[in-house]
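Methods — Computational structure assignment.
A single polypeptide chain was analysed. Its primary sequence is given first, followed by the predicted tertiary structure written as structure tokens.
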Amino acid sequence: MAFVGLVACSEQISTDPSLSLSFSTDTLRFDTVFSGIESITAQVRVRNDNKKAILLDQIALAGGRASQFRLNIDGVSNADSKVQNITIPPKDSIFIFVEVTAQQTNQNAPLVIRDSIVFAYNGKVQQVQLEAYGQDMEILRDRFIANDTTLTADLPYLVYGALVIDSAKTLTLQPGCRLFFHRGAQLIVGGNLVVNGTLEQPVTMKGDRLDNVFVNIPYDYVDGQWGGILLSYAKAHHQLSYLEINSGYSGIIVMGTRDEQPTLELQNCRIHNFSMYGLAAENANVTSVNTEISNCAGYCLYLAGGKHTFIHNTIANYFSKTTIAIHSATREDQVSVCINDVQKTAPMYSEFVNCIISGTRQEEFGLYTQFQEQYLGSFHHNLIQSGLIDWPQFSDNRYIQPSDYMLEEGNKLFRNISYTGEDYYDFRLDSASLARDWADVSTAEKYPLDRLGNDRMADGKPDLGAYEYVNGME
């Protein structure tokens, strides 16, 4: 009976060369992969939609053993990435799992890697193309830097563990420098951090997953991928220009003491999508201009102790405004901006001018102090999502609620305050934004260019926040 069964089964195998297999994709593409680091595993589904079985003489990589790709074919893997005499029953399918390890190229730019999976049967051949980009990089694994050091844009850096800068030493990052952090890795600066990014060549720090978490959803959108930046030197002078960091646990934490406060200057930076804080400063003097701090599960901005000057910043917290389960954290029931003068900290002074503070909560701004009228500070020409703040330090501000721009037709604030899988958050101003034409002109004249290099003073009516609205840029 077993022999008859085998004969019957063999009779169902078609040798008709007109039959074809179908594939889940014609070209399997990998995002950029770092040289010498194994990629994620991608898959191709191979389906036989015909009424008879197909016997494949061979499934193999065209490049054979020399290929930088590897195959697991329906559970079978070997050094040749090749399987022979495999049958796909009618109306059935098999899966092929693909990985790639890019070889060192000794070049700065990514190089394309190509191969194909070859399916030979019934005297014909079908192929699925494979494509990836290999990028050389320098690995910094638990690296302790004991001297003044400059990192360049020649190659990206891949950080494992902690990158630690010794006390009183300076780490300088040149324009275009890129640092990718493995899960849990962080930058700990015991000295000074100088970031010399430019509009054309910003300095970037992000997680090392360059692939997608779901189809067409990059890991760039997933928070909590790396540890963040800790600035711990009380005598430091940090200067950060055009730094873009995203999708870590905490963005930037800067710490001093009641007796000594470090200085942190941010110009044209972007701090986005963190599981805890965006920028947290305790006993530190912070100046921030033309900077976006957005989408954090905790505070976007936390200030306790020291002098704070924030001019033309966009602080927007819509962390939970997504229909896709990509976040590792849930937004806490906390304001977007917290100024805490209750703890025993260094003397405080806060100035906010031409800023936007908004988010998903009714109240997104909190100034906590024992004696409200005695707090040292100045808050004017800001758009603040909260009820009216009738303190002497507050003047010429505009107070809003979410209904002012979420529900009323035509009264928008930003270009996009959510993520549904099509359009990602975009905190540039909408054409009907409540923040348009509302900035203090004398302050804007001192900072005539916005974070993207647009002229604030072109129409004589500058906008609030880090981004000036530009006609025709919808």
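Note: The two ends are 72 Å apart (CA to CA).
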